[in-house]
């Protein structure tokens, strides 16, 4: 079928408005003393690769197959560690949110489900919010009472010598059907006070580390301030009722942010995550 010029322009505009729709699905199952991956399915910008397993842990790397997220994109990752499984998810490179062909924000939703006596580690590379980008990112986590989780996220607001994009993030965690943590943050153009002294204090990178482990019930951590000089970045380790630990960090660049979060992860590590 041949389209007229008007039909072609209309179709192009509609595609730009819609953006890319893509969902990646990962499922880990325990069996025979190891963890298998019965579901490993990615489309659009998500290419999923199996990595060499470690002990009984299955490992998956998310590889970006195209530029995303762009304005108007609707992206989603669903990862499940079934009862007794151990799953580690990382990414091959940083995710770069870019300006798209539409003013609509991009959405990037992550749904994590961890069953009884299962363990999931979500440890991707940073998210870079380039100038002109507009992103809504959510994590929705559902844990069984005996589940263990390490969730790490890093955000770099703007590439070198450019203004940041706009990003809103929401993290909701439920353990045993009860809400453990529900928080939202907004950074970049249009967000009031985001770079002021009460939030990022002029820094351009921020990140979080959430560790949930039943071991904290008998051996809780104390609150800690990490980082010697505010101008080089600092992190706060805060125990949560749950049992859990939340680390929030800010730093002038990605390297120093990563150092702070690495330090915090070592401080919060329990034998079940070694």
Automatic annotation (TrEMBL):
Known role: Required for maturation of urease via the functional incorporation of the urease nickel metallocenter.
Lineage: superkingdom: Bacteria
Cell location: Cytoplasm
Name of the protein this chain belongs to: Urease accessory protein UreD
Family: Belongs to the UreD family.
Chief subcellular location: cytoplasm
Keyword Nuclease set for record: no
InterPro entries: UreD (IPR002669)
Phylogenetic classification of the source organism: Bacteria, Bacillati, Actinomycetota, Actinomycetes, Kitasatosporales
Quaternary structure, from the entry: UreD, UreF and UreG form a complex that acts as a GTP-hydrolysis-dependent molecular chaperone, activating the urease apoprotein by helping to assemble the nickel containing metallocenter of UreC. The UreE protein probably delivers the nickel.
Alphabetically ordered keywords of this record: Chaperone, Cytoplasm, Nickel insertion
